[in-house]
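Quarterly update from the structural biology core.
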Amino acid sequence: MEAASILSAMKGEKLKDSPQWLTWFAKVQLYAMQKNVWDLCNPEPPTTTEWRDRMDVYKMKCTKWEKQAKGLSDVNEYILTYLDPIHHLALITYRTPYDRLVYLKTRFARSTAYEEEIRMNWKVFAMQKPTGDIEQWLQKWNSLREQAVSLGISDADSNRDFLHAIKEVLPIWWQGKYQEIVMDKKVANCWIMNEAIRPEGYTLDEGKLEKAKKKLANDPGWKQWVDKATNEAKSKHHESASQIGKHALSAAKTGSLSLHNRWILDTGSSSHSIVH
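Predicted structure, tokenized:
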């Protein structure tokens, strides 16, 4: 989808509260990039002083300054159009898109309280099965998921949470995706979770192990599956190691491996023989 189409599809939402900030800010960034002036609007460092120095450079060296100025004016108008009117008065002392975005970022970007609110909303929403219009539910899920992921919840977690929520509504689809996304992760082959397969000299990341244990403690069903998978893998690993040990012991006792009833294959020959 082209940038203009994205903007058209997202029009109508006005920034009013912190939960809207990430989506709203992304829209402003996209619009400013279309106007080729995002580097003059970006509220991230450089500082205001450095920005004003860059503005002087543009005025002196950029032959298209008038076009840039028109772009900045358009971004200013865009910000006001899609900012809730109750916040317009606060922008009176801020003239440029840069200054306004710096202020709005300070005002709306996530705080500790906001982060906790998103974490709580995500946790509650992830435990509920879909109700009402499934399309609206999916849109709300995706919006909340993006905010949750930005706070450090991994895609794997959100995928699994989504599958738990959708299970009763689309059981057949759920089964296929659960196998694809979750079961096929092969936790039994994870060196962190399965100590039996860790190679010699492997340095264990205790932090990751502790993090994994905490997550499993909060999900008994998932922990049960992980324990079962790793235990089965340990059993197979020990059986394999035992077989290798027996062959090695046999070879040590006889001095050499027996070639009795063994195929001898010469890849350069057109015929092969078996030794009796």
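Residues 188 and 230 are 5 Å apart (CA to CA).
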